[in-house]
Amino acid sequence: MKKTHVGFNIPGQENVYIERFYNDEGTVAVNTILSCPDANWSYSMDILSEEEFELLTDRDVHQSDKEGIYIQHLGGEVIEYFTFY
């Protein structure tokens, strides 16, 4: 099983990680998790398309540009954890 792990240090907040696990061939995503171990929370993000995952893990894309994806898949109640710049 292949794993992609990307961490973000959002200013003023805990570290947030996105992990995506692929099948043994590395061709099909089988599990995606958004987590913040220091704050003791995690959310399933299995519904993310590959394009959305690539956007969220691209360090050159500004956090405010990622906000819509978070809101769409996690809902407004979760977004309070994030500050978008």
Describe the structure.
The protein has three helices and four strands. The chain is an alpha+beta fold and 85 residues long. The chain has one domain. The protein has a four-stranded antiparallel β-sheet with strand order 1-2-3-4, covered by helices on one side. The chain is globular and about 40 Å long. The termini are far apart. The model has no long low-confidence stretch (mean pLDDT 79).
Topology at a glance:
Layout lengths: L1 E8 L5 E8 L6 E8 L4 E4 L5 H8 L5 H12 L1 H4 L6
Antiparallel strand pairs: 1-2, 2-3, 3-4
In short:
The protein is an alpha+beta fold. The chain has helices spanning 50-57, 63-74, 76-79, and strands at 2-9, 15-22, 29-36, 41-44.
Q: Strand percentage, roughly?
A: 25-35%
> For the CA atoms, what is the radius of gyration?
13 Å
Distance between the termini: 35 Å
How many distinct beta strands?
Answer: 4
Q: Order of strands side by side in the largest beta sheet?
A: 1-2-3-4
Question: What class, by secondary structure content?
Answer: alpha+beta
Major β-sheet annotation: 4 strands, antiparallel
Features of the shown structure:
single chain, 85 residues, alpha+beta, 4-stranded antiparallel sheet
